[in-house]
Amino acid sequence: MLRGFGAAALGAVVATSCRSQGSPTVPAGEAAALPFRLVAAFPTGIPYVPAGPAVRLPFQVARIDGSLVQDLPDPFELTIWRDDRQVGDPVRVRPETDGTSTYLPLPAVFDEAVDYEIRGNLEGTDLVAPVEVVPPDTVTTPPVGAPMPPSATATDERPLDVNPICTLNPQCPWHTVSLDAALGSRSPVALVIGSDVYCTDDRCGPSLQNFVAVAGEFPTVTSIHAEPFRNPKIETFPDDVNRTEVATVLGVEWEPATFFVDRSGAIVGRADGIVGAGELRQLFAGIA
């Protein structure tokens, strides 16, 4: 297991893409034989889901061979369970796509720092995925409802030793304003921390490209792209020392991570990992 930011970034791609996730109540041998499984498309193995604040948890449905099911029922019903009892009403989730993969963005609030299960059903197969909910003070990244910490981000005029300041080719246009300056101007802000180098599988896919494309539709929002590493290298993950200032200040241990901030400076939306254009438009519209 890699250490530090690189380990968590890899975890968002590899650890959450393990096709062996299933219910603790289902024996491993039986789970392996199921034709479908519900898998997390958000970071696991690190403190990520806090008790208390609203969270967005994307899930995907995988076949026994590991391929993803793209044509899911709309809506897709998911339920939250704890201690083998259902918590609250079923949630009717609309399947979304990032252009390459279908996912289910589950909105949820977990009251206590205990283990929960997310359950669903596809073609008669019961789907179960565990969710570890932790005390909020163990999660390093600010949740929805918290103020956005000010931080400098690399711009065309002030690159802050980030080279390149944008790994997209051609470079995206969202490097003209630093995050701290945007917050100081009381503008609504959309910030994505992500790289076009590392997170390229079906757990995050073209999420960065989707942000770059949709941001142009909302001129009243200050859109910012920040790289997670100052000197990204295609061959290996950089170490902690190489993290950009904004990744350090926000405690981001995966990528991509996307934040939506209103004019008061409060975080009103988060969309980590896989996110499609349709969902992004709704989040942008919420602060425009």
Describe this structure in words.
With 288 residues, the protein is α+β, with helices and mostly antiparallel strands. The chain folds into 2 domains: 4-138, Macroglobulin (MG2) domain (Immunoglobulin-like); 179-285, 3-Layer(aba) Sandwich (Glutaredoxin). Helix content is 16%, strand content 28%. The protein has 6 helices and 13 strands. The strands form 3 sheets. A 5-stranded mixed beta sheet has the order 2-9-8-4-5, with no helix packed on it. Strands 1-3-7-6 form a 4-stranded antiparallel beta sheet, with helices on one face. A hairpin with a 4-residue loop joins strand 6 and strand 7. Helix 4 (207-215) packs across helix 6 (277-285). The longest helix is centred in the first third of the chain and has 10 residues, at 4-13. Residues 1-29 have low confidence and may be disordered.
SSE topology:
Elements: H1 4-13, H2 28-33, E1 36-40, E2 49-50, E3 54-63, E4 76-82, E5 85-93, E6 96-97, E7 102-109, E8 115-122, E9 125-134, H3 179-184, E10 189-193, H4 207-215, E11 222-226, H5 245-249, E12 257-261, E13 267-270, H6 277-285
Parallel strand pairs: 2-9, 10-11
Antiparallel strand pairs: 1-3, 3-7, 4-5, 4-8, 6-7, 8-9, 10-12, 12-13
